[in-house]
Amino acid sequence: MHPIFPPLNEQMDIIRRGASEIIPEGELVKKLEKSINQNKPLIIKLGCDPSRPDLHIGHSVVLRKLAQFQELGHQAVLIIGDFTGMIGDPTGRNETRPALSLEQARENGQSYFEQASKILHPEKTRMINNSTWLAKMSFEDVIKLASKYTVARMLERDDFTKRFKGGEPISIHEFLYPLAQAMDSVAINSDVELGGTDQKFNLLVGRDMQREFEQEPQVILTMPLLVGTDGIEKMSKSYNNYIGISDLPSEIYGKTLSIADNLIYTYYELATNISNSELTTVKEHLSDSSINPRNIKRALARKLVEMYHSIDAAAQAEVAFDKLFIKKEIPDDIETVTFNNLNSTISIIDLLLQYNLVTSKSEARRMIQQGGTTIDGLKITDPNSALEFKAEHIIKVGKRKFLKLIKQ
Q1: Shared-domain flag, residues 35 and 166
Q2: Can you give the pTM of this predicted structure?
Q3: CA atoms of 333 and 314, how far apart (whole Å)
Q4: Taking Cα atoms as reference points, which of 3, 315, 34, 62 lies closest to residue 193?
Q5: Which of 382, 384, 385, 406 is nearest to 395 (CA)?
Q6: Which residue segment(s) compose the domain that 28 sits in?
Q7: Fewest CB within 10 angstroms: 124, 264, 307, 314, which?
């Protein structure tokens, strides 16, 4: 039985929320009208990069928009780039996009789907690997596909333009990426494709290619790139400014409280599922000088924990945070390890690295120099200092990393 769709205006109000651009909006209105009249869902496409399977709430922005389309009765399709994932970054300069085996790409794609299912309705989501059609293309097919797009059009992409003018090399592979992504749209005959603002060019190529294959072109909907907890760069694991979907409740809560006040509304709008009326209330409270923004931020932190864990977990995370940072107490669940080094002393840098409190010696040195490391409540300021072991020590690195060491 086909779904019964909400009225057009109601759908457009939900679809417009938080969107950067809808290209062209008039075509989307026509598609929705046709969908309602024929009682037939639209096909909503989202391409997924399998080289980064660990999702954060920056990824959730576009996933949440896809979930909204699902709730309106439309068909969500996740395209896992398992075929393109095998190629990796053609220039060889981007270490975060290594070439993957087909097995790795599919395994990562499954991990992506499982995490995305915290946001999407999994039973209503189709997941398809793009190797299904791309792996079948012959070299003749690729040549015919490449003939449908010009170099001049490719160079309209911002990064291509900058590199071309700067005399930097551009691999032929890179011109094939937008075409491969466009073939995904042709393969499923998508009505709407979602993506971040940085994907606008590729999404538009899909629209052009559908015309070449005599399909009705898809509408493009781009979403803003969520600024990370540092308040400067887009949210990314490489910038270490992310809030992971699979993070522990305490981590989600604590990281959320670290964002700048001017990001509170944006996080509510793009990263939560509160209603538009609740969103209006948030805006009113933020403009009310009698209300401390920290209280609004605490409610945001609870909401995010609740979304990815539970109401109880959110309450417990808040209590634990207050105990740790307001009452300045050591957490109850502090990890305890036995120190079994043959020597009675160890350099502080080696100590932090050995027990995974930092990821590198340079990070250890930086944390010490910035005053972010204490042992038994005393701040360590000299990176060259060493610890002479006694019976027991409490080590703290940054705001949330604790370790209890007991001498064997």
Answers
A1: yes
A2: 0.77
A3: 17
A4: 62
A5: 406
A6: 8-223
A7: 124
Looking at residue 95, what is its pLDDT?
45
Q: Which two tokens stand for residue 242?
A: 């992310």
- Give the SS3 label for residue 221: strand
Q: Are 77 and 190 in contact (CB under 8 A)?
A: yes
375 φ, ψ (degrees, to nearest 5) = -125, 120
Whether residue 233 lies inside any domain: the answer is no
Amino acid at the residue 291: I
Domain count, the chain: 3
HEC sequence for 278-305: HHHHHHHHHCCCCCCHHHHHHHHHHHHH
Sequence letter at residue 373: T
- Supply the pLDDT for residue 2: 57
| 3-state percent breakdown (helix, strand, coil) of the chain, nearest 5 | 50, 15, 35
- Integer Cα distance of 25 and 29 in angstroms: 6
Residue 238 within any structural domain of the chain: no
| Domain boundary pick from 326, 352, 383 | 326
Q: Is 158 exposed, middle or buried (0-12, 13-18, 19+ CB in 10 A)?
A: exposed
| Strand bridging mode 392-397 / 373-375 | antiparallel
- What are the residues whose beta carbons fall under 8 Å from the beta carbon of 360, sequence distance 6 or more? 353
What is the average pLDDT score of the chain? Answer: 88
Terminus-to-terminus CA distance in the chain, angstroms?
67
**Positions in the chain short of pLDDT 70:** 1-3, 87-98, 326-330, 332, 340-343, 376-377, 390-391, 407-408
Dist. CA 388–CA 119, nearest whole Å:
49
pLDDT score, position 382: 84
Burial of 232 (0-12, 13-18, 19+ CB in 10 A): exposed
Q: How far apart (Å, rounded) are the C-alpha atoms in residues 235 and 237?
A: 7
The verdict on 100 and 67 lying in the same domain is: yes
The domain boundary residue, chosen from 185, 208, 223? 223
The DSSP 8-state label assigned to residue 74 in this structure reads P
Same domain, 147 and 209: yes
